[in-house]
Amino acid sequence: MSxxxxxxxxxxxxxxxxxxxxxxxxxxxxxxxxxxxDYLLKRSVAFAKTREFEDSLADADAAQTILGSxxxxxxxxxxxxxxFELGRFPQALEAFRLAxxxxxxxxxxxxxxxxxxxxxxxxVPTPSEAPSTQESKPVVPVIPPxxxxxxxxxxxxxxxxxxxxxxxxxxxEVQFTEAAISLTIKLPTGSDFSFDLDPLAHTIVPDQSKxxxxxxxxxxxxxxxxxxxxxxxxxxxxxxxxxxxxxxxxSSTASTPSYPSSSKKRKDWSAIEKAVEEEKPEGxxxxxxxxxxxxxxANDDVRRAMIKSFTESNGTTLxxxxxxxxxxxxxxxxxxxxxxxxxxx
Length: 345
Fold this sequence. Notes:
Elements: H1 3-15, H2 19-32, H3 37-49, H4 53-67, H5 73-85, H6 89-101, H7 107-121, E1 149-153, E2 157-162, E3 172-176, E4 181-186, E5 192-197, E6 210-213, E7 218-223, H8 241-247, H9 269-275, H10 283-297, H11 300-312, H12 322-325
Antiparallel strand pairs: 1-2, 2-7, 3-4, 4-5, 6-7
Helix pairs in contact: 1-2, 2-3, 3-4, 3-5, 4-5, 5-6, 5-7, 6-7, 8-10
């Protein structure tokens, strides 16, 4: 596809809040046409949505370089927001001032610049408010009483952000196993702060997982063992329908169970199990059981069609026709009487 086509698809993915896919498509557009700063600016916004503010800042800087020495309102606004979220408030304030000094062709953008500028001014002391002491205090990690964490995913990785500020990389230790992760921070007091996810909803590849220590957070990047599997939850049992379908693989040579018995006559336990029928599921349970049976008996094309249609349509479509589903993105089709609300950029 051309850069313009990739850019259009990226914007559609952004509106659908599929930010990981939008980032991939913006990257493809930029690779095809590296002279267009719009691709970088839109990718900067998408990175901000996934809280990858270092990447968002890098894209805004690169876009400003393409645009030249004159400050760009859009580029400086994106720089300011990324710097603000990274806790670098004086630099953010300077970026917002540059954005305000530039010409903006959008009233909403001008208002946004003014709002961010006033918000940042409150966090940057004036020279008269600056502390008079000459002694610098050591920067210590800020560990809130309840540590906040967020996560997002693409087909290959699950990224977990643990929001702890001012952590030195040499005080952080992360252990990855197939079913769990353990994060430990050594504090100046001599005690340890621990953050554990055990068990994870699905297995990962430890030696391909990694972490990064940033100014406002620690980012854990978990390599999925089953690529393409959409995690419904991060930790514990995942009861979402797609993992259920994925997990229902046809068994190979399954042997009939045999149990110890003093009887000389061998009993067919499988026949007995069939005779004792469980209560048939109803409602949603029956629907899930039907989907599992269809997936179990299907070929690879049908399985791909089921997973792709369900995930891309936000759970509103489940198709078994790969010839149709494979042609492009499956659109969201809400039930009659309801409306799919899109996020406005």
